[in-house]
Amino acid sequence: MTALRSLVERYLHAYNERDFATWADLLCEDVEVRADAGLMRGRAAALAFAAGTVRAFPGLRAELENVVAETADTIVVEYRLVNPDQDESGWHLAGSVCDIYRVRDGRIVSCHSYYLTDGADKTDVALLPSRTEAARIADRQVALRHVATLVARGVAQEELFAAVNDWIARLVGAEQTAMMRFEPDETVTVVAAWSVVAPATTTVGANRRLDAALRTIRDEARPVRFGPAELPATGAFVEEARRRGVRSWVGVPVVVDGRVWGASFVSTTGADPFPPDTEARIAAFTELVATSISNAQARAELRSLAEEQEALRHVATLVARGGSQPQIFAAVTEEASRLLGWRPMALQRYDRQGGVTVVAEHGVPGGQGAYIAAGGESVAGRVLRTARPARVDCYANAMGPASVVAHAFGVRAAVGAPIVVGGEVWGLLLAMSFDYPLPPRTEDRLAQFAELAATAIANTESRAELTASRARVVAASDDTRRRIQRDLHDGAQQRLVHTVIQLKLAKAAVATDAAAATELIDDALQLAQRATAELGELVHGIMPAALTRGGLRAAVESLVAHVNLPVGVEVTANRLPAGVETTAYFVIAEALTNAVKHAGATSVEVLAVDDRDALRLEVRDDGAGGADPTRGTGLVGLADRVAAAGGSITVASPPGRGTAVSVALPIGGAATR
Q1: How many CB atoms lie within 10 A of CB 506?
Q2: In the prediction, which pLDDT does 672 show?
Q3: Is the predicted pLDDT of residue 129 greater than 50, yes or no?
Q4: Rounded distance, CA 319 to CA 323, Å?
Q5: Engineering a disulfide at 506: which of 244, 429, 477, 520 sits with its beta carbon 3.0 to 4.6 angstroms away?
Q6: Of 26, 25, 31, nearest to 45 (Cα)?
Q7: Count of domains in the chain?
Q8: What is the pLDDT of residues 395-442, one digit of tens each?
């Protein structure tokens, strides 16, 4: 026994036992029950209906007879109502019932019930006007049961639409029936058609523009009819019907998940209009059609979600493995294009002027490397301005370079999602359409791929920056060693060599010329002293003694003592980890050097604050500004040194307004201190 059949049996058993606590527990809180009594929404309304039925007919029982059809989440069953009682009016409530149950997470989420009375109800006291009317209702129930079975079996929509058209024509006496789907571009497409005459006036697949009558059905979600008793109507749809001799027709909306999906139409050339209840009789079938469409859309959405997750997983794996940017860009555009039904897809990068270059594409007119200038109303322009997804549903009246390209290649609509790297809009992922506007969820689906592209770009740039930083560190180390070697060779080493020479000459002159020896010794002493001073300066440049002995404040005070500018110093007296003090010292030293040598500053302020978790530095001058952190070795070297210490650095240097170098260096816990 299947899980769905077991659920239905428990549901009916609980009803027969009047165990309404169990009965109600098998319903979802937001259950929807549709029966002859009308539409009931919610568990409480369904429970009240069941309790009222039992009060009216205490002996009523439901006996399961047959499972008509069953899918993963839908089951159609037939059961018989057995009832020895009758109410005050003589109504017996006895007959067969066809129920369609939709199930979610082991509970009934909807139940559509179709009741077919038996002979006990076809009496003079029954709530039916006549036996003829009873037969008509019976025919309707048979038709609904047949259509419900097709819905539960999940037949192709073409088969379902054809069956619905056929049954509606029989039940309302129509000469022609048609079902149409509303399209996003203000047209309708015929999805089913039936006619008692040949050739049919409407054919499957025909497409036409909306007119006032069709818009009324779509926008107001209500039936519309025209006939001899109605006021004359205008519009291409009505006029065409009149040319073909149609004197009366009725259109009923098909509402799927709260939105008007399409409409079902019946028409006749007879003089008499359709009966007043025609709309209600057609609506019963459109509800079943809506259920079928909703089920199909739900299944399609599940398939789409699974495909989407697989596509994202494929691209994410490529990103995680460190694939190259061209590889990842190609994968992003191809997977996104496939998920949108192979729509043209482009990954574009902005330049400084706001124009875009296609860096990857799939099915895009113009191809990779194409450039589109900035300007006009375009998706790329909106994305750049807002850093949010944007769309253009019709380029027909748009202006600008992007619109010119769109017109040239027949692109009618587009949707773009931003690729944000490091807080800046780097580019966008753009989907295009040659016909209809793209679906509403397109922005969300593109955004997921755009995020993966942004991650790949950030990873690649981080790797490139790390490689460049390492190369700069190695080059700086080599330059430092060469400078030390040069300074030693040209300075202290030369003086020490001369000292040795002088001392040798003095030694040779001691025995013969004491005065000359004394002079040579004095010269050697001066050379040695000068060599010692130069070595001290060299050592100070490598690691100042004041920093080692007295900490950051002492080192900074010693440093500014040699600067020929007014320097305001506010530096913490706390001793910090050696690595933090060293990094901070060289940041301040480099910033002071830039202020003196390059900025033409007249004053400098140095601030170093210990806030327990980080040392925050700021060196601000009143010089010329305009410093570019990406050019020259000084600021680039500082950035590398700060990054190596796990810190962050920002440089603000507007032209004519001075330069401010701000650094945050992590300190760590008390144990580190």
Answers
A1: 19
A2: 41
A3: no
A4: 6
A5: 520
A6: 31
A7: 5
A8: 776 667 777 777 777 888 899 999 888 788 999 999 988 887 888 778
Please report, rounded to a whole number, the percentage of residues in the chain having pLDDT higher than 90: 9
pLDDT band at residue 539 under the 50/70/90 scheme = low
Q: Which residue range forms the structural domain that includes residue 572?
A: 549-666
Same domain assignment for residues 161 and 298: yes
What is the C-alpha separation between 70 and 4, in angstroms, rounded?
8
CA distance 476 to 470: 10
- The residues with which 400 forms a beta bridge, in sequence order, are none
- Reduced to 3 states (helix: H, G, I; strand: E, B; else coil), residue 95 is strand
Look at 9 and 78; give whichever has higher pLDDT.
9
- Return all residues near 244 (Cβ < 8 A) that are at least 6 apart: 201
Beta sheet of 259-268, edge-to-edge order: 207-209, 187-195, 176-182, 259-268, 248-256, 224-226
Q: Are 292 and 207 in the same domain?
A: yes
Residue 401 lies in a domain: yes
Taking all residues of the chain, what is their mean pLDDT, rounded to a whole number?
Answer: 78
Question: How far apart are the C-alpha atoms of 184 and 186, rounded to whole Å?
Answer: 6
Helix extents (H) in 491-513: 493-510
SS3 428: strand
Quickly count: other Cβ atoms within 10 Å of residue 597's Cβ: 10
Task: Return the CATH number at 82.
Answer: 3.10.450.50
For residue 618, CA distances in Å to 240, 318, 667 come to 80, 41, 16
For residues 171 and 296, state if they share a domain.
Answer: yes
Q: Which of 422, 449, 476 is the last residue of a domain?
A: 449
Global pTM exceeds 0.70: no
**Of 106-120, 326-340, 480-494, 626-640, which gets the smallest average pLDDT?**
480-494
Confidence of residue 673 (pLDDT cuts 50, 70, 90): very low
Q: Is residue 458 part of a domain?
A: no
Same domain as 524, residue 486: yes
Q: What is the pLDDT of residues 175-223, one digit of tens each?
A: 888 888 988 878 888 888 888 765 556 778 888 888 777 888 889 988 8
Residue 459: inside a domain:
no
Q: How confident is the model at residue 123 (pLDDT cuts 50, 70, 90)?
A: very low
Task: Give yes or no: residues 503 and 634 share one domain.
Answer: no
Both tokens of 503, joined, read 């001392």
* Kind of pairing between the strands at 27-35 and 107-117: parallel
User: Among all chains, which residue has been given the structure tokens 């050379």?
Assistant: 527
Q: CA Rg, the chain, in Å?
A: 43
3-state DSSP assignment of residue 287: helix
1 and 139 fall within a common domain: yes
- Any idea how long the chain is? 673
Compute the distance between CA of residue 562 and CA of residue 525 in angstroms, rounded to an integer.
27
Tokens of 401: 């370079």
Q: Indicate whether 269 and 335 sit together in one domain.
A: no
CA distance 220 to 210: 14
Collect all residues with Cβ–Cβ distance below 8 Å to 610 and sequence separation of at least 6.
Answer: 572, 574, 576, 667
CA distance 138 to 254: 24
Contact predicate 557/514, CB 8 Å: no
Half-sphere exposure of 90 (CA within 13 A, CB side): 10
Q: Strands of 648-652's sheet, edge to edge?
A: 567-571, 604-610, 614-621, 659-666, 648-652
pLDDT digits (tens, 9 = 90+) for 586-643: 888 888 888 888 888 889 999 999 887 889 999 999 988 888 766 655 666 777 778 7
Q: Which amino acid, one-letter code, is at 452?
A: L
Do 435 and 314 belong together in one domain?
Answer: yes
Taking the C-alpha atoms of residue 214 and residue 221, their distance in angstroms, rounded to an integer, is 10
CA–CA gap between residue 109 and residue 343 (Å, rounded): 36
For strands 413-421 and 248-256, give the pairing: unpaired
Residue pair 328/319 in contact (Cβ under 8 Å)? The answer is: yes
